[in-house]
Amino acid sequence: MGNTPGGMPGAPGGGDPAQNKKAAEEKKKEKKEPMAAPSHFGRKKIKKSKGSMNSSKLPPILPNAKCRLRMLKHDRIKDYLMMEEEFVREQDRLKPKEDKENDEKTKVDDLRGSPMDVGSLEEFIDETHCIVATAMGPEYYVNMMSFVDRDQLQPGASVLLHHKNLSIVGLLGDEVDPLVSVMKVDKAPLETY
């Protein structure tokens, strides 16, 4: 008599005695099987949970292949954008240089003036002064502007002169050697032999 009615299958006190025997035999077989060898020896390692590290780890994202391809595509786009940003930064950095060069060129052109005369350099007096002969005939003691390349100047070279103060503002690039042009006869001699 008890709490469980007799004849209920699966109840410990009742049910099918054949099933109870089978269950008892299976338990004995499980106990008789050898235990698996331990995979490690020594003290059991205690897993330490790193509180903030575990919470900051990202979960694995699946499917992995599509996500990796997408990440690589975005990395390449990021690289292109960084290159473009660097290019724009360099252009902004170089732009003031170009403006400064243009301003200097306009100042030099203003100093030179548009109408210019051509003369021949006769001799150097000092670093900033020399004697120049013009096509009209007279020789002048003139000033050399600071932007003229003095290394290319030599006696007999053709130079550009400012039309008002006759200062040297440039050098004419001759195809002929200046020493040869000095020896050239401009006018035919009056004497006949």
From TrEMBL:
Composition bias, Gly residues: 1-16
Gene3D superfamilies, alphabetized: Nucleic acid-binding proteins
GO molecular function: ATP binding
Keyword ATP-binding: yes
Keyword Nucleotide-binding found: yes
Segments of skewed composition (Basic and acidic residues): 22-34, 92-112
Positions of the Proteasomal ATPase second OB domain: 118-170
Keywords assigned: ATP-binding, Nucleotide-binding
InterPro entries recorded: 26S_Proteasome_ATPase, NA-bd_OB-fold, Prot_ATP_ID_OB_2nd
Region span, Disordered: 1-61, 92-113
Biased composition (Basic residues): 41-50
Protein name, UniProt field: Proteasomal ATPase second OB domain-containing protein
